[in-house]
Amino acid sequence: MYNAAKLDQLIQQMTLEEKAGMCSGKDSWYLKDVSRLGIPSVMMSDGPHGLRKQAGGGEHLGMQESIPAVCFPAACATAASFDRELLHRLGDTLGKICQQESVSVLLGPGINIKRSPLCGRNFEYFSEDPYLTGELAGAQVRGIQSHHVGSSLKHYAANNQEYQRMSCSSELDERTLREIYLAAFETIIKKEQPFTVMASYNRLNGEYVSESRKMLTQILREEWGFEGYVVSDWGAVNDRVKALAAGLDLEMPSSGGQLDAEIVMAVQNGVLSEDILDKTVKRILQKVYEFTENRENVACSLEDAHQIAVEMEKECAVLLKNDGILPLQRNQNIIYIGEFAKHPRYQGGGSSHINAAPPKGAWYFSDKAPCFCPQSAEDLSVMLKAAAEADAAVIFTGLPDELESECYDRKDMHLPEKENSLIQKVCAIQKNTVIVLHHGAPVEMPWVNETGAILDMYLGGEGVGEAADSLLYGDSNPCGHLPETFPLRLEDTPSYFFFPGDGKRAEYKEGIYVGYRYYDSKKMPVLFPFGHGLSYTDFTFDNLKTDREELTETGILTVTADVTNTGNRAGKAVAQLYIKDLTQTAQRPVHELKGFEKVFLKPGETKQISMTVSAKSLSWYNPYLKDWYAANGEYEIQIGQSSRSICCKKTIAFHGEPKLKYRITPTSTVGELMKIDILRPTAEQVIHSIKTQILHPMSGESEREAEHRLLEMILGAPIRSIRSFGGTTDIMNDLIRQFNKILLDNGCLAEEE
Ligand code: BGC
Predict the structure, then answer these.
(1) N or C: which end of the chain has fewer CB within 10 A?
(2) How far is the CA of 233 from the centre of ligand 1 (A)?
(3) Which residues are CB-contacts of 168 (< 8 A; sequence separation ≥ 6)?
(4) How far is the CA of 146 from the centre of ligand 1 (A)?
(5) What span, in angstroms and rounded, lies between the C-alpha atoms of 451 and 423?
(6) Is-contact 743 663, C-beta < 8 A?
């Protein structure tokens, strides 16, 4: 294994031109070799729900064929598994495939947050929630890298739309950036050390991410300890020298040596220090050798991988609705409707497109049930007659390829009009109508109340047909849960007015209120909430306990609860742990996901699930502290089956180190004092004494009303106003001294301004 000293020696032997050359691709997929020094050329390839290895130079937009490979469910689907082991297995399988195909880095997973359902690449991303994203994508990275194949975590960062993605500036405040858009990157980088991070195309608050020292060096390396190399998204480099100095190591693909020459010139002119270049080359070579010196003799055949893809998709599909029609019986008279019954949509377009064998749809596994794909009016009436006479009709529908792809966003959340109309016609004559959906992001469902059941397969990979058959007939039990909210309509989405912006700027004015953080805080009706997913059995959650009542800064609190399968089929339940901040010291969403566990239960069985909570689980990103922060006080722990179905809860207390510093001045209001937990008892005494002195109900006002009015007035009043209500300057100064003394004694007195 090449160690740091050997790499230093190697770099010393390289010419300036060779070093600059290491910092860009040889072609679309390979890094350069330096044969005189024995430095090998290694390959990177797209994925990440399969391997898209292009033979030869290739290009990066999925237009040219790549080698035949198995297409696993896309991230929109795997995220619905709420299953870390499943993602680890996916990563492990991909790691083996990469070893087999000599691919050193798999370009993924993509972990951008689903800010709007319209983003064209949402099918490649996991969730609207950073915790879920970090946990699941982290497991995938761990699986890939367990085979000494690198993962490239992308697209860093705030790349949440395709419209003008190569130049548009995502405009957002620091708290939103850290809490929503960087949190999953932070988790995975700290825990998994991916070989590489891919710098996105877009600008962030005006600056290209690929040129941002704050993003590529300060946050990524200095704060989070990232040890790998940063690769540009394909063609994301704007100013090569500036990018290199900011921390962008590898430019991809090749720019034919043009930008390497700029690096050479910058070093020669003294604009760029050679030391920065050496460090860059070292980071790249470290990962090159980590791959080449750990080659594994592993393999995964197309047949084995296909079987894994089928098994995975069974765990990912989400049963959104079931009036009792599902599961179907094999001896029922069922008709299948829609082209997707035979040729399902199973992956999205663009650079993640896998050259998979066209999958067989569910119909092929159904003992050849009648299948209709009406085109003409005549066909339609034949189909409607058959539907009316059948025991049930299953409509396979969804979004067509051309609506979901890299490079552009959707304009609305509609299914094609002809699909909606077909569904409505069938539902009008057959109440047992089952909808099977194939799509990468939420759609509006104007017919939701007319259907008997809805099974969401998302973009389920090449095993989608077989998995749908197994789920529809109850050979498997659905256990997926939505990793995103399905809003009723596009107009309800928090970014509605601001997405995708004017092409120059995309303003994230909804701030931290993304997905359920918005819908749940506003108590808005939604089509299906975050975390929702039904089963053919039922579960109850109760007996929530914690191993302690109080959590400290460094402590871990263990939460347990009992999950019981109360139905008569085996199945998997997903326990979701949300935390609600009761301290009222900052603007927080009504609750946030901070834990989940998937558990298999036989009929009648009860199992205890256990999850842990730390100070970080309670925290929000405080831009003044430049750190995660949880106020002292009470927090509610909730366990539920979705963000809208909380089954049990318990309040715990948090006692952390004082981090925020304050100084009380004559203009500090009583309300501000009340928000600082250590000052609250004294502030309450002050309020009490003022109230008893000046409480005078006005005519017609009850004592309670007067007290309320007075309290609100006092809370809004600065301490200095005590002088206008009978107090003196001495009393005011005494009070201020008293409060600052408490702050001093507790180590949280701020310097004087
Ligand atoms: C995409 C990346 C991809 C790269 C290489 C870019 O257009 O944004 O996700 O990995 O191409 O194909």
Answers:
(1) C
(2) 6
(3) 161, 202, 203, 500, 501, 503, 504, 505, 506
(4) 23
(5) 8
(6) yes
Minimum-distance ligand 1 atom for the alpha carbon of 200: 8
Is 233 a residue of the active site? Answer: yes
- Give the orientation angle of helix 84-100 with respect to helix 130-145, to 10 degrees: 40
Residue nearest to atom 3 of ligand 1 (CA): 351
- From CA 613, how far away is CA 640, in angstroms rounded? 16
How far is it, in rounded angstroms, from Cα 286 to Cα 229?
9
Alpha helix (H) ranges present in 342-457? 377-389, 417-429
SS3 assignment, position 17: helix
Tokens representing residue 229 in the block: 């190399």
pTM of the model: 0.96
DSSP string, 60-83: SSS-S-------PPPHHHHGGG--
Question: What are 413-438's pLDDT values in tens digits?
Answer: 999 999 999 999 999 999 999 999 99
| Packing angle, helices 703-716 and 680-694, rounded to 10 | 130
Q: Confirm or reject: Cβ of 60 under 6 Å from ligand 1.
A: yes
* Separation between Cα atoms, residue 452 and residue 444, nearest integer Å: 17
Out of 46, 233, 249, 260, the active site residue is 233
**First-to-last C-alpha distance (Å) of the chain:** 54
Summarize pLDDT for 546-587 with one digit per residue, the tens: 999 999 999 999 999 999 999 999 999 999 999 999 999 999
Ligand 1 centre distance from Cα of residue 114 (Å): 18
Span 20-71, pLDDT tens digits = 999 999 999 999 999 999 999 999 999 999 999 997 655 555 566 899 999 9
